[in-house]
Amino acid sequence: MRTIEHIVAGGAAGAATRHGDVYDPNSGQVQARVTLGTTADLDRAVAAAQAAQPGWAATNPQRRARVMFRFKELVEANMEELARTLSSEHGKVIADSKGDIQRGLEVIEFCCGIPHVLKGEYTQGAGPGIDVYSMRQPIGIGAGITPFNFPGMIPMWMFGVAIACGNAFILKPSERDPSVPVRLAELMREAGLPEGVLQVVHGDKEMVDAILDHPAIGAVSFVGSSDIAHYV
Questions:
Q1: Which residue, of 127, 157, 165, 216, has the fewest CB within 10 Å?
Q2: How distant is the alpha carbon of residue 47 from its chain centre?
Q3: Cα 103 to Cα 149: distance, rounded to the nearest angstrom
Q4: Could you read off the pLDDT of 66-80 as tens digits, one per residue?
Q5: pTM of whole model > 0.90?
Q6: How much of the chain is in helix, strand and coil states, percent to nearest 5?
Q7: How far, in Å, CA of 178 to CA of 26, rounded?
């Protein structure tokens, strides 16, 4: 049976002790199993992100934008494969799955213009003898916890902007339909993103708690229910 693994820089750390079932919504049968990660798996991802992020942040915005342009091309070229994979785990019809991915691409298109968005501001004479300027700088490492219902769109909403702005990003997708987020991370690597800048970790509450408690993660983005949002 197919096993869906983490996308962590340096590869797998060893045999996983826990797995979750990924169902085929057309038959109700288990079609794959996904590795459920631990705090140790997250620590490995954070360490890789800490190593990769400074160099990525130092890359000028124009070069970062070129990676986003290339990623957009690759997603469009692989649209059919991505849509069929999404449908096979979520249950949406193919047309709806393509719409899911296309809505995510709209944010990636925005990220292709990130050099202009990252410009700071300067105000001369804000007060007597006072000039004011602002600079936009990356926070370091961000994380995203994404839901079952839009496994293509919402991950791209989150990691696209974070990465274009010079951050590293750790994505924790729903364990019920994780294959499309994994494939998107693979396409980002193919587009030229350095290893460690975008990683995918799988898991349940144990992984969510590890993300929320990790001192090196500077921001967490979440989409889901109000109750879990309060928890986050």
A1: 127
A2: 17
A3: 13
A4: 999 999 999 999 999
A5: yes
A6: 45, 20, 35
A7: 17
